[in-house]
Write a structure and sequence with these properties.
single chain; about 375 residues; alpha/beta; 13 helices; about 10% strand
Length: about 375
């Protein structure tokens, strides 16, 4: 604004802060690059090539700088998301390897992405779904303890030994959480036995799969009901099936060669029986950890397309951004629109006390309900 009567007096609002101060990109452009990389799995070098076809010359390292800068800006939201998930009564946990470039050695090393997943929709839980990834250089108990520090709820996982180590009472830093094991991991052992035996029959594996399918049929009928209804239905219908299955496992084990794959699968089931059947007494627990395994799929697809993370810091940024984008997808939120809005608010001084208002499930940028492919 300027005054006609006052010479040389001009009043002007300060320009809003930008994520890349003095740089070319808007928050919307940075959000587009991040969404393309972590949602649609387009590596940065491909995005640079695509931009070049439109006459826009941007080096891959420039795009990487934008992504890293955005990840640091969004990291407080990642911390808050983790805090909220750790306050949940139940979490699914899993880990998967991911190659990371090892500078100075000219090759990659194996890092690991750990995931915490909360999805209570199968029992009509009120907490919104979410997932948090964390990068670690290994998959030992020490890394899981760091991620789950202080957690006291139900840890739904596979039978991997470090999960048992994390809750071992003899450890001074042990978690007080309760382990619930996954039926899918047990089922896959019998599927593998039957497949490898083909075309010869594998009667024990076949019958085991049929009996486990009966338990899943009970779950299908109870899906979407309250936790109390699910518990009552399981006690009435699944408990007798599980009891009969255990007796059948014990009977068959006496007639199998000790070192056979089938015997190993039966011993695995019996050794973890209490943790496998914990779901029968708690309607909040699922039979399997498929929720967190679905959450791991985008990590594996990104690793397949990008081949490796450029460094440990790059893998940590990957974990932060993937956490927020996958949580957007779980809540039917457009990740690109959400990112653009949140980045603009954060760089312009959004109060730290109001971070919950920026979390994906609080967003108004929902995906188009008439096109379910956008939420895939």
């Amino acid at each position: 604004m300027a005054c006609r009567a006052c010479h040389g007096v001009v009043l002007q609002h300060a320009a809003p802060e930008r994520l890349i101060g003095g740089g070319l990109p808007t928050e919307r452009l940075v959000a587009h690059v991040i969404d393309a990389k972590y949602h649609w799995r387009l590596p940065l070098y491909r995005q640079a090539q695509m931009l070049a076809t439109h006459g826009i010359a941007l080096d891959r390292s420039t795009l990487a700088f934008w992504v890293g800068y955005a990840a640091q800006e969004l990291k407080p939201l990642w911390h808050r998301l983790r805090e909220l998930l750790l306050a949940s009564s139940k979490l699914c946990v899993d880990e998967t390897p991911a190659p990371v470039l090892d500078p100075g050695r000219g090759r990659t090393k194996t890092g690991y992405f750990w995931a915490l997943s909360r999805d209570n929709r199968p029992w009509a839980g009120r907490d919104p779904p979410g997932v948090v990834y964390a990068y670690a250089p290994g998959r030992g108990a020490v890394h899981g303890l760091r991620l789950l520090e202080g957690y006291r709820g139900i840890i739904h996982c596979d039978g991997y030994q470090p999960y048992k180590t994390m809750t071992r009472e003899t450890r001074t830093d042990a978690l007080s959480g309760t382990l619930a094991f996954c039926w899918s991991h047990l089922r896959r052992q019998f599927v593998k036995i039957e497949r490898e035996a083909a075309p010869a029959p594998a009667p024990v594996a076949r019958e085991a799969l049929e009996r486990i399918a009966q338990l899943y049929a009970v779950e299908k009928a109870l899906r979407g009901r309250s936790d109390a209804e699910r518990r009552a239905g399981r006690q009435a219908h699944a408990r007798p099936l599980a009891t009969a299955l255990r007796q059948w496992f014990e009977a068959k084990l006496d007639h199998l060669a000790r070192k056979s794959d089938t015997a190993k699968a039966l011993r695995y089931a019996l050794r973890h029986w209490d943790d496998l059947t914990l779901y029968l007494d708690d309607g909040r627990i699922e039979m399997d950890t498929n929720a967190v395994e679905r959450a791991m799929r985008p990590i594996k697809l990104n690793a397949k397309n990008s081949l490796f993370a450029g460094c440990d810091e790059g893998a940590e940024n990957w974990a932060v951004l993937a956490s927020l984008i996958e949580t957007c997808k779980l809540n039917g939120v457009s990740a690109e629109h959400w990112l653009a809005d949140v980045l603009a608010k954060l760089v312009n001084g959004w109060p730290a006390a109001r971070l919950d208002e920026l979390l994906p499930w609080a967003s108004i940028y929902t995906m188009h309900a008439h096109d379910p492919r956008l939420a895939a």
